[in-house]
Amino acid sequence: MSTFEKKMPQMEAPVHEQDTESLLLERLKNSQSESDYFRWLLFVVGFYRGIQKVDAATALLHRFIETSNSDEQKAHCHLTLGQIATDEQQFEAALKHFKTALGLNPKQKKIVYVLHNNTAYCLNMLHCYAEGERHCRLAIEVNWTRASGYRNLGVSLKGQTKIVEAVWALVEAAKLDVADERARLLLRKLIEDNPGVLVPCPWAMEGLTPNANSENTPRN
To answer: What pLDDT, in 10s, does the model give residues 136-150?
Structure first.
């Protein structure tokens, strides 16, 4: 909820939402080009997700996919549909959207990274760790500076009982984003369950103590 919405009386919130929806839909309708339409479409979808009108968001995305001639834009729509399904913990449905998007061969590196990384996350949740590892490594090939790819790789490797490799991946994730506790918590649990891993991996402790002087910033 925005600061503005917090200041508004509770009874006026629906009116504010209706006004915003009408404005966004008008901008969408009056778009002068396909790229402009797509830009406003994403604004509308984001707004609908924010106010929990998920059905309206997914309907817009499906309608655009059916009519668009741009594989790049359709891949972006499938990515968003997959993210919506992930939010609802519908991992098989999300996985289908992510893989469909990858099959459209998007060119934007940011989109490709997120698609591989999100695919890996869903595969991990479905206990398909070997395939999840493959997509994690593909994501890291696209962008090795983001922590989430290494964090998901750690989960994939742990699921295959590749403990030393999992420790390495989680340490890398923790070092890349010192502000994100998720990798550190996974690493701590992994070491607690496998204390002997500190013998071959004494450097694992680096991942448990964030460096206060680190210049790294959150990359996720």
So the answer is: 999 999 999 999 999
